[in-house]
TrEMBL record:
<dbReference type="GO" id="GO:0008840">
    <property type="term" value="F:4-hydroxy-tetrahydrodipicolinate synthase activity"/>
</dbReference>
<dbReference type="InterPro" id="IPR002220">
    <property type="entry name" value="DapA-like"/>
</dbReference>
<protein>
    <submittedName>
        <fullName>Dihydrodipicolinate synthase family protein</fullName>
    </submittedName>
</protein>
<keyword id="KW-0456">Lyase</keyword>
<comment type="similarity">
    <text>Belongs to the DapA family.</text>
</comment>
<feature type="binding site">
    <location>
        <position position="206"/>
    </location>
    <ligand>
        <name>pyruvate</name>
    </ligand>
</feature>
<dbReference type="InterPro" id="IPR013785">
    <property type="entry name" value="Aldolase_TIM"/>
</dbReference>
<dbReference type="Pfam" id="PF00701">
    <property type="entry name" value="DHDPS"/>
</dbReference>
<feature type="active site" description="Schiff-base intermediate with substrate">
    <location>
        <position position="164"/>
    </location>
</feature>
<feature type="active site" description="Proton donor/acceptor">
    <location>
        <position position="136"/>
    </location>
</feature>
Length: 303
């Protein structure tokens, strides 16, 4: 199905059993909660999905399973995070075979590519596939920034459609809009800047805490889209302490704890990650407990 680069798209966590196998039953339970809340797409195998610990076959199994389970209700994207151009081209080919509707692409992993190398990397993959591509621009975590001049070159590839904007610079939304108008869709990728980015013109939100709180996340997007800004802000202010769990090196463990609290997941992570312990765990649990105790009653955001 075609991808409309707008709305809320959860970067879903990958569910594991205690035996460290994919837990597809629990994964399906979370997918159903996302769909029932009204999300607009699903993103697999990102940082939150523990992509760096997944085998190629596990990524392919997740893609095939999700595509079948979602059954055309929303588009399914898979993250491409490879060390070589050859590997990225192969991953894109496999994604298309497995039923993905689009790709989220990081710059080359490990090697800090220069601007020209980064552009050629994205172009090579774009020219190898029919799938639409969202460039993941996160220089804070991945040390390579895709600048406006680089995007100007990349947009010669018609299937490069969107950017996951995670520079942490809110004014970058305006810069992109000024430079490219609607040619490059903007999906904000930082939970704690999400509403601000949407109000400045971002088209959608690749979200993290949505994994545990799908309805609240979609409500914020839909309310601001309909001009009900005060209502969106009220929910967002309640949400912010929880959203801050996403901008943390232990975001996977944090969000999985939140999923446990809302009945949408388990605490199982894949080593070298380990479940939280001690004061760190107590702090996260207290944030979640406070959030649940004050959970807002949502308006009918779907109508």
């Amino acid at each position: 199905m075609s991808v409309q680069w707008k709305g809320v798209m959860p970067a879903v966590t990958t569910k594991f059993t205690k035996e460290d196998q994919l837990d597809l039953d629990l994964f399906a339970h979370n997918l159903d909660a996302q769909l029932n809340a009204g999300v607009h797409g699903i993103v697999l195998g990102g940082t939150l999905g523990e992509a760096s610990t997944l085998s190629v076959e596990e990524k392919r199994e997740l893609t095939r399973f999700t595509s079948k389970h979602v059954n055309g209700q929303v588009p399914v994207m898979i993250n491409i995070a490879e060390q070589s151009t050859k590997g990225a081209v192969l991953a894109a080919e496999q994604a298309q075979q497995d039923g993905a509707d689009g790709l989220m692409m990081l710059p080359p992993m490990r090697y800090k590519a220069g601007d020209r190398e980064t552009v050629e990397y994205f172009k090579a993959v774009a020219n190898s596939t029919d799938l639409p591509i969202m460039v993941y621009n996160n220089p804070v975590d991945y040390k390579i920034e895709v600048t406006l001049p680089m995007f100007e070159q990349l947009l010669s590839c018609e299937n490069i459609k969107a950017v996951k904007e995670s520079t942490r610079d809110i004014s970058n939304v305006t810069r992109i809009k000024n430079a490219f108008g609607d040619r490059l869709k903007i999906m904000t990728g930082v939970d704690t800047l999400a509403l601000e980015s949407l109000l400045m013109g971002a088209d959608g939100w690749i979200a993290g805490l949505v994994c545990a709180f799908p309805a609240e996340t979609v409500a914020i997007y839909e309310l601001q889209r309909k001009g009900r800004i005060a209502e969106a802000i009220e929910i967002y202010r309640w949400f912010l302490p929880l959203l801050e769990l996403d901008i943390n090196p232990k975001l996977v463990q944090n969000i999985k704890l939140a999923e446990v609290a809302t009945g949408l997941g388990s605490e199982q992570v894949r080593a070298p990650r380990l479940p939280l312990v001690g004061a760190e765990r107590a702090h996260v649990l207290e944030v979640i407990k406070t959030g649940l105790a004050n959970r807002p009653e949502l308006p009918d955001y779907k109508s």
